[in-house]
Queue: 3 jobs
Job 1
Amino acid sequence: MQLTRHTDYAFRVLIYLSSVEEGKLSTVGEIAEIFQVPINHLTKVVQQLGKAGFIITLRGKNGGIRLAHDPESILLGSVVRAMEATLDPVNCSQPLCRLKINCRLKPILNRAIQSFIETLDEYTLADISQNKEVQTLLVTEL
Amino acid sequence: MQLTRHTDYAFRVLIYLSSVEEGKLSTVGEIAEIFQVPINHLTKVVQQLGKAGFIITLRGKNGGIRLAHDPESILLGSVVRAMEATLDPVNCSQPLCRLKINCRLKPILNRAIQSFIETLDEYTLADISQNKEVQTLLVTEL
């Protein structure tokens, strides 16, 4: 059981954006280079973060991306909810599980997923922001 | 974020074995047919359940499998711990995340996974056993 790489990269983008100098715009290319991850995948992640309202994209020559809200107001569980394709703990439909109608396991698994998200919601993006580390990355030879 | 099919099938096998008549031995073929899942995959699941001490395999012509313990003593979290290939919420090593050494996110994600498992550990196999439903499946035309 693992978060998708999509959500993993979303966290890295948000950590990065919350850690750079205030007011500074960043680019997807810069973040892809820092984390050495594919720019195509990161572009999709950034688009979804934009649609979900976590970041703002400013177009044009001097454009870029920045956080749409203060890091203190972004709950970590909300990132998982927005980025994971599914929070369904098991797939009972393909193939169709014959216990589906009266299953007693599924509600318990759903409760466990809820606990997972609620634990994340005890923290905000500000708790995982890493100013010093990101500043170091910015000056480190790649 | 989803449990692997391996763990999903493990739960189905355990639900089945906890629901059949006491003392009765079951076969992998019978369970594969009931749930209409591939017998090869189910065989691997059953082998792992055996190694982890959840079930006992009796060999020979009249052999089969049965639970090794009372359903009341099998915590649901222990099934996930035994069957999931990883409970590492993200893969920070491939590709290597450059924030890995000082990451503040990973300990929070690990705490959330812990909450997931602890919620499951509030329940036992007896809570998800389905005697009536399995009896119905056994007599249902496939």
Job 2
Amino acid sequence: MADPTGIDALIDLMARLPGLGPRSARRAVLVLLKKRGQLMAPLAQALAEVALSAKDCHVCGNISTTDICPICTEPSRATGEICVVEDVADLWAMERGQVFKGRYHVLGGTLSALDAVGPDELGIPRLVARVADEGVQEVILALNATVDGQTTAHYIADALAPTAVQITTLAQGVPIGGELDYLDDGTIGAALRARRKL
Amino acid sequence: MADPTGIDALIDLMARLPGLGPRSARRAVLVLLKKRGQLMAPLAQALAEVALSAKDCHVCGNISTTDICPICTEPSRATGEICVVEDVADLWAMERGQVFKGRYHVLGGTLSALDAVGPDELGIPRLVARVADEGVQEVILALNATVDGQTTAHYIADALAPTAVQITTLAQGVPIGGELDYLDDGTIGAALRARRKL
Ligand SMILES: [Zn+2]
Ligand SMILES: [Zn+2]
């Protein structure tokens, strides 16, 4: 190809991104090569800065560029509600819905005997501790409507039962087998407003 | 969203790449955030290096990380053949075909009265000079099978007529209205092998 050193290596790296195959990675790199100053250099800079500064929030598991994420440090979000999500992608999807004003707990997956993912890996003991420590009144289980997601939701409900916190779950709007991150923002808002007790 | 500073700015930059909309840019950034060490940092590094070192070849217009590109400096490619292409993407497509062993001339576009793109902007006088300077025996016009591409091909053939160089064009395999960069590699090889005099 044009240049076996830098440019080909860059195409290979780009092709590892979701949604970009080898062909679209080549086209993306060509656009970058033609916009070296306006796009390629700023993108390199932004990636380098975020790669250095991004970290998992100690409290909720969200990814941000601060030790504790902006949602956990924002006083107005201490509403006594914690929304439990599987993944940061789901947290972002909830935020786009612009209905939930509380804080989050990002599990980072679901319980899986097959993959040896247990409650500790998902931070469930930490969630139980947060409910007491932060005076939480309601935990909203916003897990995907999949078998693993619902199994995990029931496990968390059982783990939280001794705390007497109210446990709710997204109700209306989440299609069977659907994943939060693919839902439109309005549907997520509707599902949150119509949440029901588990 | 999660972090109004670094991460959102990164998503906005990623969304400007071809093939990535806002949603796929978010998903790409999430994958990068989870693979900060293995993928995000190396990608930042590769982009920064290429942004600094990439340049247009003085001779042929190819983009590489050297002042004169590896194809122009490789002695074995002084075959007396120059392949004229519209864009670096087309040069890459030709190289993937692995049939052409000569050198290139990248026009960077096609003649267009509307956009005020004339022969000078496309380096056509420079191509005519190369034919004499490099002792070229054959110029292969590998332009897209579009009206603009074919108009430009005929203009170049006229400009080269006084040099008595043989002028050929890709024949078989390029569909009407088709663009080189979208062809499979085998078709490009076949079109090159079956090239005919213009
Ligand atoms: Zn947090
Ligand atoms: Zn060159």
Job 3
Amino acid sequence: MSSLKEISSIKLFNGYQKRYSHYSFTNDWEMKFSIYLPPKALKGDQCPVMLWLTGRTLGEWGFTNKSGIQRFAAKEGIIIAAPEPTPRGIEVKGEDGELPYGSQFGYYVDSTVDPWSKHYQMYSYIVNEFYQLLTSTNFPVKSNLIGLSGHSMGGTAAIPIALRNPDKFVSVTSMSGDYNPIATEGGSKILSTYLGENKDNWENYDSTKVINSYTGPERTIFVDLGGSDPVLDDFSQAPLLKACRGTNISLDYRIRHGYHHAYEFIQTFIEDHLLYHKKIFSTLI
Amino acid sequence: MSSLKEISSIKLFNGYQKRYSHYSFTNDWEMKFSIYLPPKALKGDQCPVMLWLTGRTLGEWGFTNKSGIQRFAAKEGIIIAAPEPTPRGIEVKGEDGELPYGSQFGYYVDSTVDPWSKHYQMYSYIVNEFYQLLTSTNFPVKSNLIGLSGHSMGGTAAIPIALRNPDKFVSVTSMSGDYNPIATEGGSKILSTYLGENKDNWENYDSTKVINSYTGPERTIFVDLGGSDPVLDDFSQAPLLKACRGTNISLDYRIRHGYHHAYEFIQTFIEDHLLYHKKIFSTLI
């Protein structure tokens, strides 16, 4: 475990919003993350964690800065951890538009193809290195109560990551994701960019496929979508319903009319996601 | 308005579960209905109503008898009204199995074809005659707070009926319905039985079509499905998601793993439906 370097620490709702960087051996790159420690954590009490996977456009700081989640996290005593969505600042051929989806996308996969594979190992980073960083002695984390959420490509990744690792993530919610990317035009382009043409491997990052092969304990997952979201089409959504039928996974799926894809949607509904985790945590204490 | 004949009146959770019959001029038949009056209504206070459309198998008494809803209705001060799903006891050629779907189905449509059209006018019965019966002086009903719910063919009907009459029904929830019956095999057989081959008319009873042409005020609808329900397939469900996108209708769609189609599902989750109506009623008082 490399040491953490504190970038900033700012008081917020009687807790502290902190920002760190550390060298990630998984991505072979210096990575940043944000973490909000609620008042309960400052007293040294172990707290549950909501781990947030952000979308492409903003770094880890964007969610922290704009979502307004700390108001609720302070009240509920839940730590909010938000890693950087990709190793930022790498100059990769193609990142300026030669590829349809390039640098700063990443999709939280372990890339298997040049030029991405050297630094884009985000699946393993989240599941192993960042998880280890969170649950080691750095922070007062209740390691059996960690939930995963995300938005856009982070929402796409949250369900597969959580369900492939049910021993690590006890709850999962998702905003505005693509739940069947192996079948959508956009998803396929992204997956082929980072994973090449081995479609068996693509399935590891597709919610419907991961649900179909899921063998872990019962889960209830929460999916939230803006009714006027122009990014996502029906094909990225409807297969999720079918996938859940006949499994031991229950689904809470919402459409909220008039909302779009970006931060206004997150700000409006982020409390519901925190409380969804809290409700599941409360059954496990 | 024909007079009501009381069949029974039984004390339950400090309220009264009553059962009536009356001559329906719409259906040209004697019809029964159940109504639960919570303690609040017995004091003479006007109460909101949850109007329940039952599925095919049981009469109006089945929901009343088996759902357990009165415990919650008593507490929340909400009247539960459950009309008979079809005019029962009519001998119609075909009801014993000559047609794929015959007597006692009905689907809450206004039939346009022999031999059904004489007595099977359930859409108009619910929207006009039964609504009028409820909101006249028979019961202490707060007529601006009536919500519609149903299960199976009642769940199929609840959304189109509520959204075609938003001035009468301010909220709607549905359990285990077919939301795109014009496109499913079972739905098409039923609609052709009662409506013939005029598919334009079928669309009046199809949630996706009614949502597409909806011009009323904003609505949030709640749909609930058992994950192991063997009656409903993906084709009856997924189009609902697409239909809601870009409209002023928000959707809460749930799948609860392991549950089947019948009363065990209703009993487990009926409180959630009552509270969904209550939450919407509370914004309108």
